[in-house]
Amino acid sequence: MCSNQTGRLTLPTAKYVFLLLLAVLLTLAVGHLYAFEELTALSLGLPAWLWLQLVVVGIMLVVAWLALGLVQREVA
Amino acid sequence: MPVTIAQAVFVLYLLGVLLIGVYASRFTTYTPTDFYVADRTVGTFVLGLTLVATVLSAFTVFGIGATASQTGLGAFSFLAIAAVLYTLFFSTVGTTLFTVSREMDVVTPSEYVRERYASPLLSVLYLGVTGIFMIALIAGQLIGGGVALDALVDIPYVQAVLAMAAFMLVYIHIAGYRGVIWSDTVQSAVLFGVLGGVVLYVVFVVDSSALAEDALAETPDLLSMTGPIENWTPLVVVTAALAFAFGVPGYPHTIQRYFSAGDDTVMHRAGFLFAIVAIPVYFFGAVLGVWSVGVIPAPENPDYVIPLLIETLFHPVVFGIAMAGATAALMSTADSVALTMSSMISRDVYREFVNPEATPRHEVRVTQLLLALVIAVSVALALGRPAGIFPLIEFAVVGFATTSAPVFLGAYWNRATAAGGVASLLLGPSLTILLFPDVGVLPSELTFGMHYGFVGVLVAYLSFILVSLVTAPPADGTVRAYSRSFWQGNR
User: Fold this and answer.
1) pLDDT digits (tens, 9 = 90+) for B285-334
2) Domain count of chain B?
3) Would you say residue B262 lies in a domain?
4) Contact B126, B404 (CB under 8 A)
5) Which terminal Cβ of chain B has fewer Cβ within 10 Å, N or C?
6) Complex ipTM, two decimals?
7) Are A60 and B84 an interchain contact pair (Cβ–Cβ within 8 Å)?
8) Is B354 part of a structural domain of the chain?
């Protein structure tokens, strides 16, 4: 079972989801450096890759928040 | 000689910080728990902003600008990624250490190390090794401020360093941690406001696109991801971020902030508030650094590019406020480090070995005396100026990363041992020092393209784990009292 009777994740499931979210975080961190490297067109004096990087960093913060919610909450 | 506007604003700012310290002293009781961690009553907003102020330093105003103007925006890439990783540490290890410190009445990082491993030796070694990097960090801040104030505000270097040191000594002495964090809150806001305001002005009034074109004409590829000298490769960016991620949350003065949180939710939220404030500040510093190349293509000292840009574009009052903000950034780091180092020496050396009968009030008095000594040593190093701002602070940050294993792993791993801690504290920092480019004992080829600090972290953590596995851990009761299961959180 992935969740208990109260709907919360069981501990093994929470661990896997946490590690998955960490993997997503690190993939975003590394991946965007390769994916956006050629995007050098300027907007407001800054390259497109930098604006996209801000978006990625924002997404990373959201992923981190979700991941840490799994550590902080009580698990079965 | 008439006082300039910038000098007047700077002096008024210092007086303002001093007044915050005087006000905070009305609420300060001179017990260790209050003087070191404000009686563990700090809320989310103040904790988040003191984390920002402590982490952001002369490196932010001077170092990022210099680095970005010379090597491009990769400096922001690694700092932004690192800031996200910091939140992971703040919300996990930070919250765990908060819980342990409250239950076991721990107020200094070296005290935690001593109690967790039942090893006064490891505690002293931890204090000694982190002390090297703490002095380097304080000195780096004073150098940053002194050089800037000399070049930009015409306050002679020696007088500037002594004035900053004296002001810090006074308000820390009278108000302790509460004075530090309240001034940090103001200083974070000043730094964010000044740098953000300058960026907005450049974008909407000056024309950032034109500045960028001028900068690119001066330095082609300045705005590429890897930079004009292609040093910000993905491998360097990610390993630098990881090295900083183990370093910044592992600063002794950051660890002491964990102990001061009002509750575990505060710690968790403050960690994210930190990222929400710090990432924009890093962004502001980096973009101002690259844009400055379009205005000041050949600065006499690249550390000054952001202040020079502001001086060129703005009224002297704004420039004075910017210099006050820059001074705020570095003093808010230096004061935190000085207080933490003094508290550790007082509690974990003086009280532990010299005078075990010391009363709490006496312990705080010794801390106040040691503050003067710590600041004096840092001033002496600052007057010697052994390295530039960015390299010196970078050295301190990655040095701290190599000292974090006994704390981070000790918080969760019941097999962690004192012998593992000793090995980690000797091997990791030593390798980092030998690889430090300004020392240059070991060739950079040994890093295989990774950031040298990350290599030191790897060695520190590997040695800690390997030695711990073949040595005996402390008694089970000690381990359980001072560590937690990662998955059960802190409830």
Assistant:
1) 999 999 999 898 888 888 888 888 988 888 888 888 888 888 888 888 89
2) 1
3) yes
4) no
5) N
6) 0.88
7) yes
8) yes
**A10 secondary structure, DSSP code:** P
Give residue A5's pLDDT band: very low, low, confident or very high (50, 70, 90): low
Q: Which domain holds residue B196?
A: 5-390
Angstrom distance (rounded) from CA B137 to CA B207: 36
The beta-carbon neighbor of B272 closest among A15, A65, A71 is A65
For residue B402, is it within any domain?
A: no
Contacts with B275 from chain A: Cβ below 8 Å: 61
| Residue B446 CB neighbour total at 10 angstroms | 12
How many whole angstroms separate alpha carbon B116 and alpha carbon B95?
16
Dist. CA B472–CA B243, nearest whole Å: 29
- Whether B210 and chain A come into contact, CB under 8 Å, resolves to yes
Q: What is the pLDDT of residue B270?
A: 93
pLDDT of residue A6: 56
In A, which residues are within 8 Å of B206 by CB distance? none
Q: Shortest Cα distance from B264 to chain A (angstroms)?
A: 9
| B373-399 pLDDT tens trace | 999 999 998 888 766 666 777 778 878
What is the CATH classification number for the domain harbouring B212?
1.20.1730.10
